[in-house]
Amino acid sequence: GVWVRDSDPALIQRAVAWLIGQPWCGPVFTRGGIAGTIRHAELMIDHPRAADIVLSLRHDELGNAWGRAGRSADNAPYPERGGCHGGLSRFELSNFLAMAGTAFHSGARPETPAGNVDILPTVLDVMGIGIDHQIDGRVLTEALVRWQVDGLGDESVISVHDRSGRESHLSVTEFNGTRYLNRAWVE
To answer: Is the N or the C terminus of the chain less surrounded, counting Cβ atoms within 10 Å?
Structure first.
């Protein structure tokens, strides 16, 4: 994130123009979605403490020396574009969650979207504890024995273009009242 002094619109515009011209720069997000950027609200970070400019480093789906797909530009000490936490590639947004016990389907591998935000509501539901309306996320009903879920949610892609022809995209899925980020990329 980049915080701009006094959130000066002209300085934000200049910084964005420079950033999107860099070969390592992936999708860029701003509060208002200025000049080829996607709005903060689409990324679910539209709050007063959010940086004026948020960006993700460029990534690709090529394999590394070990055959693992999903390389990302970074300045971390990882070998060969190893990627790091915080990117918006589908590889960095994928997570693994295992649940066990009599409340859960045995051997199930739901393909529905889910995220870390769903763990607390699911645990509270399994324990029979009421879920406060202020808790984010949803109960992972597709993993529970007593529930059956139909569908995989509605995916949408938000796309913007800048003056140079660069396109930025953000893929999101709405499922059971929760929004999930699938990936973001530039072309």
So the answer is: C
